[in-house]
Design goal:
316 residues, two-stranded antiparallel ribbon, eight-stranded antiparallel barrel
């Protein structure tokens, strides 16, 4: 993978894309005070390194899917292959390798029950734990990649708030369109139209409808290490029921938090942390977490790598 570093223009571009992943460079250029050509060149450079992806993310809960957090203890010699296999599945939202390859943690989005039987039969799986995700507490993305623009620039680029209107039944067009946007959230409308076999006007209209209905959003996948944050971990917390909401909301406001969700199981709160280094992780867990009332138990699982963040593997 090519070496890459981020300068001010790169960081502003990435922040802007987090606000609107499909915003044309012609819209971004005057706000960022950078030419369209420069923005296009910077985007292409980051894309070519494999460090950047803009992906369309469907809120499958809006179509009745359940979210299941699956924790697999695996044979270390089979971890990489199993993680790759899980990443190729359409029903996995993200797949992480944790604890130096001794575990895989992944999130399934499925219509009903988690697909446990086939996972339990896999010869590399030594143990399996499954938790239903009950509530998301993060209403924003990880703040470490959202700090390059001024408040005025953010206001100029932020899309108007959308309102969902209840459950949505996916159409045939949606079933074809959403996987294409997951692979490339900035794919041009003519390209999308050719791929799904519909007119460009129909595709453009449907993307707009899905966005307004809050079923479709866009995310920027970028390695936090490029921002100087080199340590990521899953934090499994057991919180007393009366303090769960307060603790979750408090942690969701922290700069280190990338995901905070309430789950079933003994560890009823999962937090994904992004820290600058191992010392920062130590201080966060021994000082920040220790200062909160209601924490009964904590387990830290260092993330060794991601097989899938949100977008499907490039080889899929």
């Amino acid at each position: 993978m090519d070496s890459v570093s981020l300068d001010v223009v790169d960081r502003r571009l990435l922040h802007a894309l987090q606000l609107d992943g499909r915003a044309p460079f012609s819209r971004l250029a005057p706000v960022l005070d950078v030419s369209e050509r420069t923005l296009g060149r910077r985007y292409s450079r980051l894309l070519a390194t494999g460090r950047l992806r803009v992906t369309g993310v469907a809120d499958t809960r809006r179509v009745g899917n359940a979210e299941w957090l699956v924790r697999l203890r695996v044979r270390p010699d089979a971890t990489a292959a199993l993680a790759r296999a899980l990443s190729r599945r359409a029903d996995t939202a993200w797949v992480t390798v944790v604890s130096s390859g001794a575990e895989i943690a992944c999130l399934f989005r499925v219509p009903a029950e988690a697909p446990l039987s086939e996972l339990a039969r896999h010869p590399a799986v030594l143990a399996i734990d499954v938790y239903r995700v009950l509530r998301h507490f993060m209403q924003h993305r990880w703040q470490g990649r959202m700090s390059a623009l001024s408040a005025e620039q953010v206001a100029a680029l932020r899309t108007p708030p959308q309102t969902g209107a209840g459950p949505i039944v996916l159409s045939d067009l949606d079933e074809r369109l959403l996987p294409m946007l997951a692979a490339d959230g900035r794919a041009a409308y003519p390209q999308l139209a050719r791929a799904v076999g519909w007119s460009e006007s129909a595709v453009r209209r449907r993307v707009d409808e899905l966005r307004r209905a809050r079923l479709l959003g866009f995310d920027v996948e970028i390695d936090p290490a490029l921002f100087g944050f080199t340590v990521q971990s899953l934090l499994w917390l057991t919180v007393s029921p009366g303090r769960l909401v307060a603790v979750a909301n408090t942690l969701a406001a922290d700069r280190e938090a990338a995901f905070v969700g309430a789950t079933t199981g003994a560890s009823n709160l999962l937090v994904c942390l992004v820290c600058r280094d191992i010392d920062a992780l130590y201080h966060y867990t021994t000082e920040r977490i220790a200062a909160l009332d209601g924490i009964e138990r904590m387990e830290v699982s260092p993330i060794s790598g991601y097989a899938k963040r949100a977008a499907p593997p490039r080889s899929a």
